[in-house]
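2024-03-11 09:14:02 DEBUG pipeline.ingest accepted 1 chain
2024-03-11 09:14:02 DEBUG pipeline.ingest length=196
2024-03-11 09:14:03 DEBUG pipeline.predict start
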Amino acid sequence: MDRCKIIGLTGQTGAGKSTVLSCFEKNGVCVFNADLAVKKIYESGSACLKAVAAEFGADIINPDQSLNRKLLAQRAFSSPESTQKLNSLVHPFVTALLLRMIKEVRPKVLIVDAPQLFESDLDAVCDVVISVVADEKTRLQRITERDGIDEKQARLRLSAQLDESFFREHSDYIIENNTGIASLLKKAKEISDKII
């Protein structure tokens, strides 16, 4: 069997990555969703959850043994060092799930939907990397509406991410999402048609 072609999809939070992903899904591309993988590895009693609780405090585990995401986010995004510590604990578990999926599903083309593609070094396994970017004002509005958080919390999330210049320098394709959904989908389809 031919080797699986792996496309990395990442970008700034609130830039519109999910919309771009839907375009690739319509083209029949198999998807590995890193956020869903993280939810899976945070399941009660998991090795990852125990490791994170040991680092960030036992109280990040709710009485029902689920993860208190808000409390963890508060602590993990409080400084670049804390964010890095969380990433170093979680990312190896995500990579293991990705490799297992490739082995079990054996897709011809796989898109890795990962907000932290670079931070987790998942870009190293990708043949092509696509990043979605948008201006800060647009992203702030989207994040506060989407996640039901205030501007201060949204800015904390933005500051924990790589800046736009990093995405531009380390990606094969950049999709700008400042002019509305129609142009976003058009650009996504053009790239999808070219690389699949």
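2024-03-11 09:14:41 DEBUG pipeline.report DSSP finds nine helices and five strands in the chain.
2024-03-11 09:14:41 DEBUG pipeline.predict end
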